[in-house]
Automatic annotation (TrEMBL):
Membrane topology: Multi-pass membrane protein
Name this protein carries in UniProt: MFS transporter
GO molecular-function terms, A-Z: transmembrane transporter activity
UniProt organism field: Streptomyces aurantiogriseus
Keyword Cell membrane: yes
Membrane spanning residue stretches: 20-39, 84-102, 108-130, 151-172, 178-201, 222-240, 260-282, 294-313, 319-342, 354-375, 387-404
Any single GO CC term annotated in Swiss-Prot or TrEMBL for this entry: plasma membrane
This protein's UniProt keywords: Cell membrane, Membrane, Transmembrane, Transmembrane helix, Transport
Domain Major facilitator superfamily (MFS) profile residues, every copy: 1-408
Length: 408
């Protein structure tokens, strides 16, 4: 089946969904176009134009992830309390301000402030959207529409379609300067804000609002959910290496980061064309736990491929093949892990607290990424044999398989 026919099938399947689900899925597409127009080029900007050391670049990237993922629990709790509309609109406004600030930031403190604002903006709008998609996916499943993982896979496809277009747009604008890239990203979120102010419903049928207080205690006593958080955090740390370890490897092999946008495009294109067939195949054969375990094993294999090739030190086009293999295996692992983890949350969450639990999953994993990214940046700067950091990174998703909770 060609990529074009797969894209057509994705679009046709989306038209079967409710208007709210279609809006939320298109929201994810727009979010990622604006975000990924900027993020893939941030590390090079920090190390080059701003002049940060490697450990500081890793820390700032981890701080961005933590301010986003780590504060998801706040956005999720606010969505449970006030509904998704005010939370999404506020997050979009903050993202516009953050991208504008980053475009003009020249000192380390200003960069950190802008990155924190960018991350916190997503901590508001993303858990609100994700929790409502998960809730609507359960409704879809209960009314006979099909497995909830199918809806969540469509959500992932939309996000990766945005991640495919975003880096290409950013690479095109980077020929001007990094500021232009940031302002373009801000402009996209201006359009998103206007569209959602018009289309997003004030009240969503079936969604109850609960107090912010009273949900954290039961969550912290939910061992199965906390185990899922740890395993998902290991996956997210591995995925974050697309922005830290991969650029360093591409620079080593090619002498520049020009091929990076194409590797990001490869990852996104794989998800856009293969996510739904993979989800359909896996859904007929594997439980959620086994799907996540298989995905984590593929991700570990991706790091091992680069580690095995590095002692030979290939450069040029042959030198980029291990990086491409890493991207393919990481992406295949993501296809298995991400929909399964999202589909698992409604089974583990307390009634009325789906936003809180969706946010907590990302908050816990964001803390893991913050610590792990700083450690990875240090490893890449210490002068160890190049294969060592990749071997250590391969051990992280491999160990996470044992952390996965048993599905009751």
């Amino acid at each position: 089946m060609t990529s074009l026919s797969l894209l057509h099938r994705n679009a046709k399947e989306t038209t079967r969904l409710s208007p709210l689900l279609r809006l939320l899925i298109l929201t994810q597409l727009a979010f990622n176009i604006g975000f990924f127009a900027v993020l893939p080029f941030l590390a090079e900007h920090l190390g080059g134009a701003v002049g940060m050391a490697g450990w500081m670049v890793g820390f700032v990237l981890g701080l961005r992830t933590f301010s986003q993922q780590g504060l998801f629990v706040v956005g999720g709790a606010l969505a449970d309390r006030y509904g998704i509309r005010p939370v999404v609109l506020t997050g979009c406004a903050l993202r516009i301000a953050g991208f504008g600030w980053l475009g003009y930031a020249e000192q380390a403190w200003a960069v950190i402030g802008a990155v924190l604002l960018i991350g916190f903006a997503a901590a508001l709008f993303s858990p609100a959207v994700e929790s409502e998609v998960a809730r609507q996916a359960v409704v879809w499943e209960e009314t006979g529409g099909g497995p909830r993982t199918r809806v969540l896979a469509l959500f992932t496809v939309a996000g990766q379609a945005g991640a495919f277009v975003g880096p290409l747009l950013g690479a095109l604008l980077l020929s001007t300067d990094f500021r232009t890239v940031c302002l373009a990203g801000a402009g996209i979120f201006v359009l998103v804000l206007a569209g959602h102010a018009w289309l997003l419903p004030q009240h969503i049928p079936g969604r109850t609002r609960v107090r912010v207080r009273g949900g954290v205690g039961p969550l912290l006593r939910n061992r199965r959910f906390l185990a899922l958080c740890c395993a998902y955090g290991a996956y997210l740390l591995a995925y974050n290496q697309l922005y830290l370890a991969l650029p360093a490897e591409v620079e080593r092999a090619a002498g520049s980061q020009a091929p990076l946008a194409w590797l990001f495009a490869l990852s996104s294109l794989l998800v856009v064309t293969a996510q739904l067939p993979v989800t359909r195949w896996v859904g007929e054969r594997l439980t959620l736990r086994r799907s996540m375990a298989a995905g984590l094993a593929l991700i570990a294999a991706g790091f091992a491929v680069v580690a095995a090739a590095l002692p030979a030190g290939p450069t040029g086009t042959p030198g980029l093949l291990p990086a491409a293999g890493f991207v393919v295996l990481l992406t295949l692992g993501q296809m298995l892990v991400a929909p399964a983890a999202r589909a698992w949350i409604p089974d583990l969450a307390e009634e009325g607290r789906l936003g809180l639990y969706t946010g907590a999953l990302s908050s816990a994993s964001g803390l893991i990424v913050l610590i792990g990214s700083a450690a990875t940046g240090t490893l890449l700067d210490t002068g160890l044999p190049p294969a060592v950091p990749w071997l250590l990174l391969a051990a992280v998703p491999a160990a996470a398989i044992a952390l996965l909770p048993r599905r009751g």
